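Before relying on records like the one below, remember that each one covers exactly one chain. Contacts with other chains, cofactors or solvent are not represented anywhere in the record.
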Amino acid sequence: MFCSLIIDSLLHPTISIMSRGSSVPTAAQFFKSIPWCADLLSRPDVVPFIPTCRLEGEDAVRARTQDLLFRRSLNNAESVPHCIGFYRDPASATMSTQSTTLASPLGTPTLYVNSASLLFDLRPGVNGFNGTAHGGLIASLIDEAMGSLILINHIVQGQHEKEGRSLPPGTLDLNNLRVFTASMNVRFQKPVPTPRIVLVTATFVKTEGRKIFLDVRVEDENGIENARCDGLWLSLPLQKV
């Protein structure tokens, strides 16, 4: 996935889309009808959002040449009809008490939002072998989760700047950067039978220069890991792209 993180053309329109998009109530209604998903989404410090791959109407036109795999090809009753994202508000009391344990080593930059999750409703149309989701599809879910974590951080940074607030010292400055997936080391641990709802969580690990290291887990409702990924993203200054 390639995230072109440019404030003027992407960030400001997306703030309202991802926080108050018309699809949020619809997606939330579906997942909140499932007890274990409802428990995740109903926590007081959770902020839900619609991933860019599921924006609709005029909002989708801004990204009409990207995200078509999940917005169009897989967006049907037989494949992946429902998807929603969420993250825990770093400003909440619970998260604030944990923030000191999340710092990257040696004082290197960190992400303000340390982790973001996506819930996917997988149907038999994504099957590969013997009633289970295709491995390539699982890898795509992982990439979507990583991209959402990066984009959410950029959006939150823009919100802080718009309100005249500063991010905590040591936060990675995503202004005027383009970031993209460089490598994914995916370990398939258990098949994912369909139909099935999976939780895909991308978590920041560390930065090293232009490198951003992420850890991604694909889990079922019982917290059993179906897949795990060591993800590496690279950042480039906008003027060098």
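The mean pLDDT is 84.
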